[in-house]
């Protein structure tokens, strides 16, 4: 019994699977630790088989050394794309961390082994809410579409220019910090003014012990104003998804 095997298609699909696996392990929402590794592996295999017909045309079998070199390049490409997506969505986590620090919740910080996030309530709340919105709104499909388009920019047997991704990383980190400040900035300003007001009250009437009274006041302000930020979270996730797609397309 003779079973014909297209080794060019098989090699191209294997290289695509390596890039997709590296991407899924790092990029949200697929990187969440509560998702079983076998599910991630099945997703990577399914996506690579779906991409096999697109990456195989024009591919020629490589020598052993060149094939292992291409494997290394695919790991780096997938990891880079996943890291760019992770940087975009780290803005919400950083905004939650700012709210925890200025709202007085930082004392209750804990490490989440599933999301690998070390933070207090709002840090983990914003992180988990962003992951839930990505799945419920279909944003993960946009991210996967960007990953699929990356094979047109960087073929499985090709390489990418180092200068382009390096500039994207610098821009991504700066945009992440700016987005975090824009998201949490109004709330942080209100909490700072509350601290200033409590300080003035303490100067005028030291017997009132305003700082002891300030903890419940700041917690109440944080809960009220953070609710406004939480209502705007779907729009923020949509904007961050578009930004992640733009950064993926920028790798070539």
UniProtKB/TrEMBL annotation:
Keywords: Cell membrane, Cell projection, Cilium, Flagellum, Membrane, Transmembrane, Transmembrane helix. Coiled coil: none annotated. It comes from the Bacteria. The chain crosses the membrane at residues 12-34, 41-59, 65-89, 125-148, 176-198, 219-237. InterPro entries: T3SS_IM_R. Pfam families: Bac_export_1. It is found in: Cell membrane. It is a multi-pass membrane protein. Belongs to the FliR/MopE/SpaR family. This is Flagellar biosynthetic protein FliR. It comes from Microbacterium murale.
